[in-house]
Design goal:
Chain lengths: 454, 454
Amino acid sequence: MDNIQKLIHQNQDRYINELIELLKIPSVSAEPKYKEDVLKAAEFVSEKLVAAGLDAVEICSTKGFPVVYAEKIIDSQLPTVLIYGHYDVQPADPIELWTSPPFEPVIKDGKIYARGSADDKGQFYMHVKAVELLLAENLLPCNVKFMIEGEEEVGSEHLGDFVRENKAKLSCDVILVSDTAIIANDIPSITVGLRGLSYMEVEVTGPNRDLHSGVYGGAVANPINTLCKMIAQLIDDNGHVTIDGFYDDVINLSEAERQAINSIPFSEEEYRKELNISTTQGEKGYTTIERTSTRPTLDVNGIWGGYIGEGAKTVLPSKAFAKISMRLVPNQQSEKISQLFEKHFRAIAPESVKVKVTYHHGGEPVVVPSDSKEYAAAERAMEKTFGKKPVPQRGGGSIPIVALFEEELGVKTVLMGFGLDTDDIHSPNEHYGIFNFLKGIETIPYFLKYYTEG
Amino acid sequence: MDNIQKLIHQNQDRYINELIELLKIPSVSAEPKYKEDVLKAAEFVSEKLVAAGLDAVEICSTKGFPVVYAEKIIDSQLPTVLIYGHYDVQPADPIELWTSPPFEPVIKDGKIYARGSADDKGQFYMHVKAVELLLAENLLPCNVKFMIEGEEEVGSEHLGDFVRENKAKLSCDVILVSDTAIIANDIPSITVGLRGLSYMEVEVTGPNRDLHSGVYGGAVANPINTLCKMIAQLIDDNGHVTIDGFYDDVINLSEAERQAINSIPFSEEEYRKELNISTTQGEKGYTTIERTSTRPTLDVNGIWGGYIGEGAKTVLPSKAFAKISMRLVPNQQSEKISQLFEKHFRAIAPESVKVKVTYHHGGEPVVVPSDSKEYAAAERAMEKTFGKKPVPQRGGGSIPIVALFEEELGVKTVLMGFGLDTDDIHSPNEHYGIFNFLKGIETIPYFLKYYTEG
C-alpha cells in the first residue's frame, strides 16, 4: 500500500471536484422544499459508487428518504466492513451569517466551505474514494458494504425498519463511521463514546388569539413570559436539569475514568477565546470536557413567539414555541427521558396556559470499547498516517444509529472521524479541511488492511 | 341637526366604500417595504379632506412619515377643535391566522374586517365624514383642524418636533381623538386615563457563532436558556415586576377610586370565556379591570432565537432576542422606566453572555379629567346618540401623543372612541362594527355643537 499517498496526490483535484459537486446539492432532509434535492443526492451517491467499482448498487426505498447500498464481496472467508454515512445535511439558516452561499462551495485557506462539507458528505465521500482507489489498484483487503442514508439529520426515522428488514444484506463484522472529529490535525483521536438525544417541541397557548398588550396586558397570562419561566425552571442555579428522574440512570464515572477523560489535550483558555466568551458555564462540579461528553444536558435549540419583525408591535400573543433537546449519556434512554420531560413540563405549567409537547426524534447514547480488534485497527491506521498514536475521546454529539446497529445487527461500530470541532457543523460557514479529507482517504485503506490482518 | 341621522343613512354606502378604499392601502409604518403605501395613505387622506370641503390641506413632511393637516376656520371668535388620528396601521402578521387577507377588506356580520379598520382608519375617518356632512349642510358650529399622522404605531417619533415647530398652526381649544373603545355597543364610555409605554428590545449573545449543541452543549451558556431565565426573573410569583424602582412613582389609588373603577359593567366569566382561558393571571391584590388600567405591567411582545423552521436542528445558537414592553400608569415616566429596565436587565445577566438593550419607543401615561367642559360635551353627545349616559373608563392602551399635546400645546384631549375591546386591534382579523362607524359619524357633530355651546 506504499503507493497510496502518491496516488491520492495524483487524484486529489478530481476527488475535491467531485465532493464540490455533491455539496452543491441542497439535500436538507428537514425541509420539505428540498425533497427533490435530497433524492438527487442519493442518485449522485449511487452513481459514484458504481463508478468506484462497487457491485449491487441500489437506491433502497424507505418510508422516508432512501438508503444507498453497495457492496464488494471479494471472498466470503474474509471479514466484511460496513461503511455508514449520510448524504443529507442540516438546514443552512441563519443564511445571512454565511460569508458565501451554503450550497455554492468555495475553497478558502485550505478548507471547503459548504453546508455538509464536514457533516457528513466530506467524511463519507472519503470512503467512496478510498475504496475506489483500492479497487483500481487491486488492493482491497476485505469485503466492504456501503449504507449511506438520507435521514440522519432528522433522526434516522426509517433506518430502524430498513436495518431490521435487511439483516442478511447488511451482515458484517464491523461498522466503520466517519462522522466525528479529531482533537486537532496534529492530535488524532478516536471517538469512544457518544451522547444520546431527546428532541422535543413545546407549544404554550394563552388566550385564543393575539391580543393588544395595552388592553389585556397584566390580566391575561402571556405565553412567552410563561414559556420563559417554564424553561428557566428546567435548569437550576447549579446547572442541574430539574426534570424528576433525569439523572436516575446516569452512571457516575470512577475517579480513574474521570482522570483519563480529563487528560486529553485541552486548553480552557483557547476554548473561551475561540468562542469569544468570558467564561464557560455548566453543571457544577464538572470540567468542560466532562460537561460536553460524559454529562447529560438540556439546551433550547430554538424559540419563537409574538412579533419578531422590525420595529415594535404591542402584541400579547396567543402562542409561544420552543425546540428543546437533551443530550443523554450511557444508560439513559431517549424514550424514557422524553416521557419524563413531557410529564415535568406539563407539571410546571400554570393553570393559565395550555401546553402541547411533541417528540421530534431521539437516539441512544453509546460507549465504544477501546480494547477491541476494530479499535486497534483504527489506532494503527491513524498512527501510520498521522505519525502519532490517536487519543481515545468521548464525543458530545449523537449518532443514534450506533446503538441501533449494535442492537439489530449485533455488530460494534468504530468511530474514526476526521473532522474538527471547529468545523462549524450545524452552523453557518461549515467547512472541512482539505488536509482532513485527504488524510481520511489515506487512512481508511490502512484500517481495512489492519482490521483484516486482525 | 335633527336631519343628521337621515343624511348619514342616505350616504352610508359611500362612507363605507371610501373607508374600504383606505383600508386597502397597507400603510404599515413599522415595515420599510410598505413605505410607498404609507405615503399613498397620506395622499388618500389629504384628497378626502379636500373633497370634504376643508381648507389649507397639506401633507406636511417630517423626518419620518408626513402629517396630513387641514382646517376650516369659520369664525376666529368661535372655539377650535383639533381632531387627531393616524393613517398608519400595525403589521398584519401572523398573516396565516387571518380568515381573509388583511388588506382586502370584507364585511361580515355587520363588521368590516381589515388591518386598521378600528385602529385607527375607521375611527379617524368618521371625523372626515362628520365634518363633510356639517359643511355640506352649513351646520359646522365651530372651527376645526385635522392632524392625521403616519407614525402612531411606531411611537410617533417625529410628531413632537412637528408639534413644536407648528404651534401657531395647531393652536386650538381642545383635541378630539377617536382611538379608544366603548365598553359595549349598549354601554357607551369615555376614556379618562391611558397607560404609558416603554418598549425595549434585548439581544443576548453567548458564543460568537452558532454551535453544535452536542459538541458544545453543557459547557457554553445557551443564549436562549439565559434569556428565558432573565425574562423569568422580571416578574415574581406575585405578578410584581422586579425591576428596581419600577413602582416608585406609581400613585396608589384611594379605596373610593378603586371602587369607582371596579363598578363599571364587567363579567370576569365572560372575559375568560371570550379568550378561552381557564383563569386570568396578574398582579396579586388587584382585579382584572385594575390590572389592565391602573397598574403597570410588563409583557414580552416577541421572542426569537436559534432554529425555528420545521423539524429539528441541534443548534446552540449565538444569539437570542426579545421585544419587551411595559405599560405605565400616571406619574411613571417612560424614559426613566426604560433606563431602570436597562440597568436591571444588565445587572441580572450572567457573566457568560453579552447583553445589548435598545429603546424602541415610549409614551407617557395620562389621566383625562372628567369634570371638564370637553368631557361634558362628549358625555352629552354620546347620551344623545346612544340614548344612555356614557361611563368614564380608564383604558389600558397608550396614546403617547396625549401627554405631548398637553405639554406642547397646553391643551387637553378628549378621548371619545367608538371601538370595542373585542375588535382585535393589533391582532389577526381586526374588525370595526359598521354600527360603531356610523354611530361615530352621528355623535361627532353633537360633540362640536355642545362643546361650542359650552
